[in-house]
Amino acid sequence: MNLSPLRIFVHGASGRMGRALLRLAPERSDLVLVAAATRAGAPLPEAPGLPVLATSALDAAPVFDLAIDFSLPEAFDGILGLCRRRGVGLVSGTTGLSEAQFEAFNALSERQAVLWSANFSIGVAVLRALVQRAAAAVPGWDADVVESHHVHKKDAPSGTALLLGAAVEAGRGRAPHYASLRAGDIVGEHLVQLTGPGERLELAHRATSRDIFARGALEAAARVARLGPGRHDFGALLLAEPRA
Ligand SMILES: NC(=O)C1=CN([C@@H]2O[C@H](COP(=O)(O)OP(=O)(O)OC[C@H]3O[C@@H](n4cnc5c(N)ncnc54)[C@H](OP(=O)(O)O)[C@@H]3O)[C@@H](O)[C@H]2O)C=CC1
Ligand SMILES: O=C(O)C1=N[C@H](C(=O)O)C[C@H](O)C1
């Protein structure tokens, strides 16, 4: 049994999610941050002393076992390429990726353990299963996925809305309609609305702190590192063995 902590490289470390990861990673004794990357490559107050590289110089990264990425689609190819060259795994929560980027991610999964999830909260993992079941029970009803996020969010519909939409489609064979709202500092809210004649069923999740996503990603990293190559699923991994 390997007792040394998993060496983690954080990509997108200056962002809202990156900073939460740097702040929360020290809660865990099974992981250790060895370096991070941002566009500027300047030190970050959340992790004093942690080496921070510029994303233009990722090959200067020290040895690491797995990267955690919360960046933007335009930055994703850089971290994927580094993981491929180093022969290490990747956990990513970056949304808005293209089909070509998912293909490249799938190709990495042939050699490494990787995991991408649009949402690292346990609540959404549970909601996804409930939505599929509900949509299957009322296949003729209208289905709408409504998502609300902070004004800085760039992609729409959100990755989570698309994930819940796929659950609707898996349940009833047809995609739902999507609506997106950008307002203030909303962390992330998702409503799946199934509407029939004279009644409406609402299934919703509201995130009030990014810490849930950061803790979920750290847990996913620790679990994925114990697995072999393949594209692993956050919901399946977490719900098979729920945390206390
Ligand atoms: N799966 C999940 O559970 C969650 C997913 N997300 C997703 O995670 C991603 C990040 O979200 P958030 O932290 O709010 O975003 P931010 O905009 O706050 O952070 C983005 C990070 O990516 C870096 N970056 C952006 N563009 C480039 C580039 N061209 N080259 C190199 N680095 C770049 C930024 O660096 P710089 O500071 O230099 O701009 C920053 O470090 C988004 O896709 C979001 O949708 C968010 C929350 C939860
Ligand atoms: O950008 C965000 O903030 C979030 N993005 C993810 C998404 O696109 O679904 C997850 C969460 O809702 C926050």
Structural description of this entry:
The protein has 244 residues and is an alpha/beta fold. It has 2 domains: 6-116 and 210-240, NAD(P)-binding Rossmann-like Domain (Rossmann fold); 122-207, Dihydrodipicolinate Reductase, domain 2, CATH 3.30.360. It is 35% helix and 26% strand. It is built from 7 helices and 11 strands. The chain has helices at 16-24, 73-86, 99-109, 122-137, 159-172, 211-224, 234-240, and strands spanning 6-11, 31-38, 52-54, 66-69, 89-92, 113-116, 142-149, 177-182, 188-196, 199-207, 230-232. It has a 7-stranded parallel sheet with strand order 3-2-1-4-5-6-11, with helices on both faces. Strand 5 (89-92), helix 3 and strand 6 form a beta-alpha-beta unit. Helix 1 (16-24) packs across helix 6. The longest helix is centred in the middle third of the chain and has 16 residues, at 122-137. It is globular and about 60 Å long. The model has no long low-confidence stretch (mean pLDDT 96). The structure holds NADPH dihydro-nicotinamide-adenine-dinucleotide phosphate and the ligand O=C(O)C1=N[C@H](C(=O)O)C[C@H](O)C1.
